[in-house]
Amino acid sequence: MKKVVLVTGANSGIGLALCKRLLSVDDQIHLCLACRNMQRAETARAALLCSHPGADIALLKVDVGSLKSVLEAAKELKQSKRYRRLDYLYLNAGIMPNPRIDFNAFINGLFSRKAIHMFATGEGLLTQEDQVTEDGLQNVFATNVFGHFILLRELEPFLCQSEKESLVIWSSSSNARRSAFSLTDYQHTQGKESYSSSKYATDLLSVALNNHYNKQGLYSSVVCPGLVMTHLTYGILPPFFWTLILPIMLLIRMFTNSFTLSPYNGAEALVWLFKQKPESLDPLAKYYSCTSGLGSNYVKPVKMDLDEEAAEAFYQKLLDLETKYRCWQN
Ligand SMILES: NC(=O)C1=CN([C@@H]2O[C@H](COP(=O)(O)OP(=O)(O)OC[C@H]3O[C@@H](n4cnc5c(N)ncnc54)[C@H](OP(=O)(O)O)[C@@H]3O)[C@@H](O)[C@H]2O)C=CC1
Ligand SMILES: CC(C)CCC[C@@H](C)[C@H]1CC[C@H]2C3=C(CC[C@]12C)[C@@]1(C)CCC(=O)[C@@H](C)[C@@H]1CC3
């Protein structure tokens, strides 16, 4: 039976590299590119068909930052005769709007014992300016977390099937930080680290999803692709600047193995998960794509800094928010 794989944010960066690598592993999959811009989605499909002619690739229009769009996309999938189940759901689309580097924190960090850690995770170095969506949600939370959560809830009948397990895979980050997240302000309306907060939220959510859905055959995992050169990182520093500091980055990679730099390498953990049995995965681990100093790729599981009570409390808050939005829709 063909495996059915849906990838959000599949038209560029890590998402596109993932699709290419999945087709190299198994060119018999049915791949659905879930993107907000159909022109970019078409271009991505054409590029994938170039390297894998004959691949079975469908497109789905979805803006994960808009609840209306997510509900419409889920409806389209449910009505389409092509889908009866989903084996892998890659929740990869993500944003980091208006990033700013805190140069004071950078200089202070550079001469501290946490310098390497700071480079590997970007901890304390970045701030963002968030906005409010048409649904009245914080954009980063809506895109990186809530839209994906609603998509997953809508696709439950495709994911929870007795005959076969399914795996949901979140593109999280080493930038996910407990102190950037608050249960009382889970949309991060107050602070300036909405990206870090949203990625911590995906980590919590993944843990809660495992607790609630494993019995129904649905498993969830989180991944950090490492620092990868994509539109997202070119929004932080322009390409020429990254080229300028590349030797420093490569030097730090010798110590940390955390900068995968290319989208191909960044997709390592995402592809690795495709080859695993979902029930064999550790629900409390984040799977990191790593590249050694010599350039070889490998995957490293790291225990996440969270507790299951907080995961459950956050999950209940998301269910409340979902109920509120569904009432508004009707
Ligand atoms: N690059 C890095 O160093 C790291 C990235 N990550 C995570 O990996 C994921 C992929 O990022 P990356 O490839 O780097 O970034 P890119 O900006 O290259 O890709 C992001 C993808 O998400 C899509 N997207 C953004 N917003 C929406 C939306 N509202 N609805 C639908 N699709 C949307 C983009 O579509 P469009 O082309 O239309 O904008 C694009 O296809 C993100 O979740 C990111 O947080 C994690 C750690 C490190
Ligand atoms: C201006 C200076 C000479 C160099 C500044 C370097 C920083 C901009 C980078 C160092 C570590 C980077 C990093 C990220 C962004 C850019 C840095 C802070 C991320 C936060 C990008 C998105 C992610 O999800 C993380 C995995 C990255 C971690 C490292």
TrEMBL record:
Catalytic reaction list: 17beta-estradiol + NADP(+) = estrone + NADPH + H(+); 3-dehydro-4alpha-methylzymosterol + NADPH + H(+) = 4alpha-methylzymosterol + NADP(+); 4alpha-methyl-5alpha-cholest-8-en-3-one + NADPH + H(+) = 4alpha-methyl-5alpha-cholest-8-en-3beta-ol + NADP(+); zymosterone + NADPH + H(+) = zymosterol + NADP(+)
Topology versus the membrane: Single-pass membrane protein
Keywords from the named record: Endoplasmic reticulum, Glycoprotein, Lipid biosynthesis, Lipid metabolism, Membrane, NAD, NADP, Oxidoreductase, Steroid biosynthesis, Transmembrane, Transmembrane helix
Annotated Pfam families: adh_short (PF00106)
GO cellular component: endoplasmic reticulum membrane
Gene Ontology molecular-function annotations: 3-beta-hydroxysteroid 3-dehydrogenase (NADP+) activity; 5-alpha-androstane-3-beta,17-beta-diol dehydrogenase (NADP+) activity; estradiol 17-beta-dehydrogenase [NAD(P)+] activity
Broadest EC class assigned to this enzyme: oxidoreductase
Positions of transmembrane segments: 232-252
Domain of life of the native organism: Eukaryota
Entry's family note: Belongs to the short-chain dehydrogenases/reductases (SDR) family. ERG27 subfamily.
PANTHER family referenced in this protein's UniProt entry, alphabetically: 3-KETO-STEROID REDUCTASE, 3-KETO-STEROID REDUCTASE_17-BETA-HYDROXYSTEROID DEHYDROGENASE 7
Subunit note: Binds to the short form of prolactin receptor.
Protein name (Swiss-Prot/TrEMBL): 3-keto-steroid reductase/17-beta-hydroxysteroid dehydrogenase 7
Primary gene name: HSD17B7
